[in-house]
Amino acid sequence: MSAALEKILVFVPDRHVRRLCVAVLFWFVSALVPATAAELRIGLSADVTTLDPHFVAAQPNLTVQMHIFDALVRIDERGRVVPGIVTSWTNPDPLTWELKLRPGVKFHDGSELTPEDIVFSLERPLGIKGSPGGFTTYVRMISAKQIVDRHTLRLKTSAPYGPLLEDLAHVLIVSRRAAQNAAGEDFDSGKAAVGTGPFKLARFARGDRVSLTRNDGYWGGASAWHAVTLRMVPNDPTRTAALLSGELDAIENVPTADLARLKKSQAHRLAQTTSWRTILLHLDQHRTVPPGVTDKSGKPLASNPFKDVRVRQALSKALNRHAIADRVMEGLALPAGNVVSPSVLGHDPDLRPDTYDPEGAKKLLAEAGYPNGFVMTLATPNNRYINDEQVAQACAQMFSRIGITTKVDAMPLAAYLGKARNQEFGVALLGWGSLAADLALRSLVATPTPEKGWGTWNWARYSNPGLDKLVERSLTTVDVKKREPFAREASAYAARDVAFVPLHYQVVTWAMRRSLDYTARTDEFTFAFDFRTAGENRETQTRAEGVAKDPGSAVGDKANRAR
Amino acid sequence: MLLYILRRLAQSSLVLLVMSALVFAGVYAIGNPVDILINPQADQAEIARTTAALGLDKPLPLQYWTFLHNALTGELGRSFASNVPAIDLILQRMPATVELALSAMVLAIVLGIPLGLWAGLRPDSISARTIMAGSILGFSLPTFWVGLMLIMVFSVWLGWLPPTGRGETVNVLGIEMSFLTPDGLRHLLMPALNLALFKLALLIRLTRAGTREAMVQDYVRFARAKGVSERRIVRIHVLKNILIPIVTVIGLEFGSLIAFAIVTETIFAWPGMGKLLIDSINVLDRPVIVAYLLVIVVMFVLINLVVDVLYTALDPRVRIQGARA
Fold it and tell me: What is the Cα–Cα distance from A336 to A353, expressed in whole angstroms?
């Protein structure tokens, strides 16, 4: 090849110069050759901060870590617990979980996974210095761990606790030998990043990419991809451009602005589903004078209007959720009537989103003693959820139409969360993703009780013993078949009392080359091992359960039309 | 000279102290990083425990005192979000940013000074007018827009260059450098050009103005009368004299290139320090924010020092003395 090239370059007088020309040519050509086959390059929208899987519980970190490590159980694309390293589980009594371990699971270094590794991994989160925490939450319910034999592990809880497996699905199992004395740097360098997952860590270039190679001995079968590169591309237009140019094979979190273009593109495919994230409004139901709430002349009201269920109902009826989903969210939302989205445990399909009824809302306001409405301020983050500030603006206009003059106070999440936790807002927007309705209700609307860890995100300080009892009953039921109706009942109770105002469930979108396909996940995770090569038939993958159950939903219709 | 440098260093330490206090208080005022970093399902006890473990429950002056104490022993703290020392995070990302900024500066100098010289020597020619019109564009088009357009044209339409990220790197003396590999060069070209554009326009204008001014000076006219060749006049008499303001600007601008490459880094997903700063601000990762700004201040001080020393090389009349400063 190079000899042939040298002949072509016969016009170049000197032999050495000729050789140099050939070398330079090769250098250029090698740079232009595209990536090899069976390699997958995915663009992620958020940066991974560390590969230590027990340091901070953040979804972007878990996304990368879950390629390298396994949790005891997995979450399927609908958000339900399915077997993983643990193949089956039983409850000999409500306080005990007996887990059967899959035999022959091997770490990347060839050693076999033992129950000791699991016990170590469940204890490790409690002892990491300087960790902003997070994983303690998932393991704190476990009061004792007992290794029965090589393939059986018993976990005890101090009180019956139903969502234990949902919690454990986030705690990744590390090799005790590799991680015992490891610092954060050791995970990032790969020394301690020894897991049982479908991929091995090849290189972590912080802020740029994580390179992975296939684990041929994976217990679930080797992945179709020999090599995977997870690229960090937080900038929205750049992520789309990288897909369009062929630099990336797939991207997550397709920006709303680029959706129409990618939908039309013959070279690409979209995968969409309803996300587990519910966007809702918290209404302060504790103080007599909530911040930002006044009468029309700016004087404080005699009592807190949100304590009256008719006012809460009026606010919910004032919202045209379909308009928000269709216009503001450009189809990337499904009107919500529940605390959790359709496929999640405890979603009650009979609970419809409140229908848009401004006249009815005005009537309810008048009955509650506010015929002329009042003034309030709606606080919202402006860099967290899809079009969050615009959604809040739309809500404010709809509230103003029934006489409740609403101002929007938008700020970055970094400033927002602290203020919200200090209860500086009367009305505040929040997005919540959860694997179960009882878990969501426990954080969002259960009476704040520090000893029990309830109501951490109950910014409204809503308190209702009736609801607390239902949530408690659901959480303490270990049999998931019994727990689900209980969770549903709690969900319905909260909705009937308008404990908060649900707005919509977000719709999450992946875009990829037409030759690929992805099973869209409700929990928004992007996993390389879930990508597969597809036939040429082009269709937008829209899993529409819940969409089908919600025939009145405009987005459901839209999603179906996209098929 | 030594006294001068010592004095400079003393002034700089004062700047560092004041700045660290300001940043510290500023980040404290925004909010508690634990609120952002902690698992949403965490209970109140865990939030309190974590806040205490990170030392964030103590009063601000005490926190600052602890920080100062540690900083004096060379310990700038561990990142809240990344579980590695903050300074390591920054030094890890620094080569990428410095490489990008240097490439941009080289591009700006290599293109800017000759173009500016050309435009200054033939101010009325069509080519000079074109150059000047182009420099106006370089000044006025926003970086993020130009960056996106570059990606659109060269990556999406033409498919010549990769749109994002840093290419393959090679290890040179322990530093990861990407401009030595073909893949790295291809990745570097667009972001460097994007970052260089503004500086390029600036250098063109500066060189042109200097050239036009110098060309009518007595010493140039005298040289010309002496029969010195035009090339020699431009090279020795004009260029050397207009270089002083240009070097000053290059020095200052290089600092700002490094410190504020953020927009370019964000658009091209370039894993540099600027992106690290933005990410850290988003999660209120205070050790990283403070360490980053300290590093930047030190860098500015050093660059200015180098510029001052360069003056003496360019203009023998300039003498650095202890008394001046």
Answer: 5
Asked if A188 lies within 8 A of B84 by C-beta distance, the reply is yes
The distance of Cα A550 from the centroid of its chain, to the nearest Å, equals 22
Three-state secondary structure readout of chain B: CHHHHHHHHHHHHHHHHHHHHHHHHHHHHHCCHHHHHCCCCCCHHHHHHHHHHCCCCCCHHHHHHHHHHHHHCCCCCECCCCCCEHHHHHHHHHHHHHHHHHHHHHHHHHHHHHHHHHHHHCCCCHHHHHHHHHHHHHHHCCHHHHHHHHHHHHHHHCCCCCCCCCCCCEEECCEEECCCCHHHHHHHHHHHHHHHHHHHHHHHHHHHHHHHHHHCCHHHHHHHHHCCCHHHHHHHHHHHHHHHHHHHHHHHHHHHHHHCCHHHHHHCCCCCHHHHHHHHHHCCCHHHHHHHHHHHHHHHHHHHHHHHHHHHHHCCCCCCCCCCC
Substitution target from A139, A208, A210, A444 for chain B, most B beta carbons within 10 A: A208
* Contact: B34, A132; criterion CB under 8 Å: yes
**Residues B59/B28, Cβ–Cβ less than 8 Å:** no
Q: How confident is the model at residue A26 (pLDDT cuts 50, 70, 90)?
A: low
Q: Are A554 and A322 in contact (CB under 8 A)?
A: yes
How far B37 CA sits from the closest chain A CA (Å)?
6
Would you call B45 and A453 a contact, using CB atoms and an 8 Å cutoff? yes
Flag the least confident range among A238-242, A434-438, B296-300: B296-300
Task: Please report residues of B whose CB lies closer than 8 A to that of A52.
Answer: 83
Contact between A237 and B185 using a beta-carbon 8 Å cutoff: no
A183 contacts in chain B (CB < 8 Å): 83-84
pLDDT digit string, tens, across residues B243-260: 888 888 888 788 888 877
Would the CB atoms of B84 and A241 count as touching at under 8 Å? no
**What pLDDT is recorded for position B159?**
81
Residue in chain B closest to A206 (alpha carbons) equals B271
* pLDDT at B244 (0 to 100): 81
- pLDDT tens digits along B33-65: 887 777 777 777 778 888 887 888 888 888 888
Write phi, then psi, for A37 (nearest 5 degrees). Answer: -70, 165
What pLDDT is attached to residue A107?
95
pLDDT score, position A260: 86
Query: What's the CA gap between A222 and A197, in Å, rounded?
Result: 10
Q: What is the pTM of this model?
A: 0.80
